[in-house]
Design a protein that fits this description.
DUF1648 domain-containing protein; DUF1648; transmembrane helix; membrane
Length: 165
């Protein structure tokens, strides 16, 4: 499958480093906020929202930690995957474009992992605000923005990959 592909040692770009640092900084800030507000958060928090952004499922406030942990685990797994661009699926890989394609695919994974982490950090923050009565629910635009962001990023990198064949 990918046994014949070269394993290149491609240095990380400044943008990859910046996105990782920014996301980790926001994760740390979100985690510190959760810790500092923990006593003020009611025992019951929203665990699900309907399409209008209204909470329609409730559970223990420990679910806020589950969101944070899911974001961190996803980020870590995708960080590991980022290191092995030679195992990704490519449809136009040649000796001439292999480095460009690896960089492009690795950047796609980097952008996606950081978008996902930011979504989990945001959802943790938003759920705590709804639980405390600071807000009534999520904006109806939260899920569409996340979906458009992820699919738009994927589409961008796929189109770029096709152009770079």
């Amino acid at each position: 499958m990918y046994e014949g592909r070269p394993k290149l040692n491609i240095p990380r770009t400044w943008l990859e480093n910046f996105l990782d640092i920014a996301s980790i900084a926001l994760l740390i800030m979100g985690t510190m906020s959760l810790i500092s507000e923990w006593a003020a958060i009611p025992d019951t928090v929203p665990t699900h929202f309907n399409a209008a952004g209204d909470p329609d499922g409730w559970g223990s406030k420990s679910n806020l930690w589950i969101l944070t942990i899911m974001g961190v685990v996803t980020w870590l797994l995708l960080t590991v995957l980022e290191k092995y661009p030679h195992i990704y699926n490519y449809f136009n890989l040649t000796e001439e474009n292999v480095e460009r394609q690896y960089k492009n695919a690795r950047m796609m994974i980097n952008v996606m992992k950081n978008e996902i982490l930011l979504f989990f950090v945001y959802m943790t923050w938003a759920c705590s605000k709804v639980a405390k009565g600071v807000s009534e629910g999520l904006s109806v635009w939260v899920l569409p923005i996340f979906i458009v962001g992820i699919t738009g990023s994927i589409a961008f990198f796929i189109v770029r990959s096709i152009k770079w064949k």
